[in-house]
Design brief:
Blueprint (H helix, E strand, L loop, with lengths): L1 E9 L7 E9 L28 E12 L12 E9 L4 E9 L7 E14 L5 E15 L2 H4 L6 E17 L2 E11 L6 E11 L1
Antiparallel strand pairs: 1-2, 3-4, 3-10, 4-5, 5-6, 6-7, 7-8, 8-9, 9-10
Length: 201
């Protein structure tokens, strides 16, 4: 484990110019043993739990924040999701999840998000970090003031990218902290901040 301090300065021809100070801790990460056959069973610890599991099912709760001047947000646990993740060769995972972004009147939306992930585990297998991206197929429900005017549900395709930090808890269980950004072409970009409990096998 290492600690670091970083200073970033942004220069431009006009204003604004920014300066950021960052303090962080880094953990060493190692890839999965390249000699391990993909069809071979994952090694198990004395309790019979895979030490390097290939499958993961996670339940998430969190909050949706609309990227607007008012930054409207749902209640603290107003957003929900369920996600299945499958580990591939090397540093890559794939996932598919259903997300309900909660009860914001200006953006009532739920949908399916398949993603490809670049991820890495720590040397002891307890920590993981990953970055994912993919399409987001959503249903957009009309705002309350338009529901009585005959507006209907709209099916849209947007782009979603995500970051996740995970920590093994015990046995088959792990915790997840995930940030999801949805990019739209109709001024309804959102950040969905979620905490989850994962079952691995």
């Amino acid at each position: 484990m290492e600690a670091f301090i970083r200073v970033n300065r942004t220069f431009g021809s006009g204003l604004p110019q920014t300066q950021a100070f960052l303090v962080g801790i880094s953990l060493p990460f190692t890839p999965r043993d390249p000699g391990m056959r993909r069809d071979a069973p994952a090694p198990r610890n004395p309790r019979g739990v895979p030490s390097d599991p290939d499958h993961e099912l996670t339940i998430f709760l969190g909050r949706t924040i609309l990227n607007s001047f008012e930054s409207e947000a749902t209640e603290l646990l107003g957003a929900t999701a369920i996600e299945y993740r499958r580990r591939l060769e090397g540093h890559f995972d794939v996932s598919i999840g259903y997300f309900d972004e909660g009860g914001l009147d200006s953006v009532r939306r739920d949908g399916i998000a398949p993603q490809i992930w670049f991820s890495q585990r720590s040397a002891d297998g307890r920590w993981m970090i990953g970055f994912g991206a993919g399409p987001y197929f959503s249903r957009d429900f009309p705002a309350e003031d338009r529901r009585n005017a005959g507006s209907s549900v709209t099916i849209r395709t947007s782009t979603r990218y995500s970051m996740v930090i995970g920590r093994h808890i015990r046995g088959h269980w792990a915790g997840r902290l995930q940030w999801n950004r949805t990019l739209t072409r109709y001024h309804r970009d959102t950040d969905v901040l979620m905490v989850g409990l994962a079952y691995q096998w």
